[in-house]
Amino acid sequence: MAPVLSLDGPSRFYGKLLPSTGRVLVLGAGDGLVAAALASRGHEVVAVEGSTSLRGLVLERKATLAHPERLVVVSDDPRTLSLEKKFSLVIAPHQALGLARSPDELHALLSVVARHLEPEGTFAFDALNEPASGSVYRPRGVPHLRERTEAIHPLSPLRLSASTLDEALDSVGLVARERFSDFNESPFAPDAALQVVVGGLA
Question: What is the pTM of this model?
Answer without folding.
Answer: 0.87
